Amino acid sequence: MAEVIIRQTGQRIVCEDGANLLETLLGAGIFVDNPCNGKGKCGKCKVKVEGETLLSCLTEVHGRMEVETLHKERKHKVLTKGYLPEFEKDAYDGGYGIVIDIGTTTVVTGLIDLQTGKELANASMINAQKHFGLDVLTRITYEYEHPETGIQELQEAIVNSINGMLREVCDEAGVAKEEICEIDVAANCTMMHMLLGVDARSIGRSPYKPEFLEAKMLKAKEIGIEAGDDTVLYCLPQVSAYIGADIVAGAYVCEMQKEKGNVLFIDIGTNGEIVLASDGRLMCCSCAAGPALEGMNISAGMRAAEGAIEDVKITEHGVEVVTIGDQNPVGICGSGILAVVKELLRTGLVKKNGAFIKKEKLKEEDYRYPMIQLNGTKREFILHKEANLFVTQGDVRQVQLAKGAILSGFVALLNKAGISMDDLDKVMIAGQFGAHLPADSLVGTGILPEAVKDKLVYVGNSSKTGAYMTLMSKKVKREVEELAAKMDYMELAETDNYERVFTESMIFPAF
Fold first, then answer.
1. Between β-strands 281-287 and 488-489, what pairing exists: parallel, antiparallel or unpaired?
2. How far apart are CA 248 and CA 188, in angstroms?
3. What's the start-to-end Cα distance of the chain, in Å?
4. Are residues 132 and 184 in the same domain?
């Protein structure tokens, strides 16, 4: 056997000799950031072992090892509300309901008084499945790598999180868990499978066919949710492996099935899910934007937590940054990396092909000259010298790939419908991440075209709102299920000239 001692707290963890240090720390409930699920690629799981900085995922435990953790879990910025249309609620004599939005990154829960429809309390947290990977594919990979235990471990992580949030909201409102009549859940397809303990591996391999798409209704206690014996769990329906119940909920909340004109709905995150309503037809697609827009795969990237840079301005007097919680900067989140790329383009430090300009092309008296430095042969932008934060050429390329993916999905849907950008009446931006993106960043980086800048409408957490509407109305449940059946999914890779569309969509706009 071996032993790990946590330097800051003195906590002792006994493990097998030769055990993986990251797995040992996570198993003991110690926070270690590990976006790549222990693959040694992201460089974020650093710890100090006897004064030497190491990646915990590549370190084995032998004998007695003293470990100093280098990061603390920070308070995150989570969106809990969204646009709510008028609708007719069912009549209830009493009782309570729960609505849950399970995202890959965050989970949001609300306690509802069924008689009044009022939200009495809400809670939010980072999805505990982050220990198994920060995106759906790394979590699916975990199921592949741990066929005996992976499905159960991922289910237990989210169910335990839900039980903790149920206790929190019930205690806050003075409600007994046994008084909960129904729990309605909207989630992406992978998260829904993992919640129900259903094998999600088929979502990660061609032909990307989920085990189920239809709405599910069962007793909550069947999957370990701690509520009443008869508490019903309702899971909203899905369209495909990458258009889940969260997007169906959003399309319903935005009343896209009733739109007469041309309306685009987009949820921007690790995946960019897009729905287009045109001439009464609903078409949708999903594009793999990657985790860069949520602060991951970025050299100084982090989630939207305290100390994350969320806005940047490049001026003649220097670089100005705004951080979440007005804390000292410790990294940059998704909205921040978009803001800085937009500024790099605006000031000409990055060209429209995504490459940094050569420092020698700038005069020494140019205010931009000291902002660029060479790291070996590679150019990088000095974002915050005191905090040792930089934007590298690789970071710009990550944003460029995400921009290409989202814009190409946008263009492909419009091409299929036979309409142009100018024909769009409205573009609705949904989701946790989208809510924090100003139009200047979306258009300035070219994720969305200039033609829609004045047509943007932010609808917030439409996934949770959709779950609220199904909770409060059996008619809405029926209509949401009918809507999911009507949504026509388009596989981008199979569309005509998609590679050309993607390549053109990678080009940044000129200022």
1. parallel
2. 10
3. 61
4. yes
- What's the domain range around 148? 96-250+465-473
Tell me, what CATH number does 54's domain have? 3.10.20.740
pLDDT for res 246? 96
**Is the residue at 332 inside a domain?**
no
Read off the pLDDT band of 80 (50, 70, 90). Answer: low
Number of CB atoms found within 10 A of residue 172's CB: 13
Cα-Cα-Cα-Cα torsion 212, 193, 272, 457, nearest 10 degrees, comes to: 90
Please check whether residues 115 and 195 belong to one and the same domain. Answer: yes
Return all residues near 117 (Cβ < 8 A) that are at least 6 apart.
Answer: 89, 472
Question: How far is 114 from 98, CA to CA, in rounded Å?
Answer: 9
The average pLDDT across 274-278 equals 96
In a domain, 152, yes or no: yes
Lowest average pLDDT, out of 1-5, 81-85, 290-294, 410-414, goes to: 290-294
* 65 and 45 Cβ atoms separated by less than 8 Å: no
Q: Which CATH number belongs to the domain containing residue 147 in this structure?
A: 3.30.420.480
| CA gap 254, 265 in Å, rounded | 8
pTM beyond 0.90, yes or no:
no
R_g (Cα) of the chain, nearest Å: 23
d(CA 502, CA 491): 14
Whether residues 65 and 100 share a domain: the answer is: no
Residues in CB range of 25: below 8 A, 6 or more apart: 4, 13, 32, 47, 56, 67, 69
Which tokens belong to 1? 């056997």
Q: Using CA atoms, how far apart are residues 92 and 182, in angstroms rounded to an integer?
A: 12
Looking at this protein, which amino acid is placed at residue 278? Answer: S
Whether 74 shows a pLDDT value over 60: the answer reads no
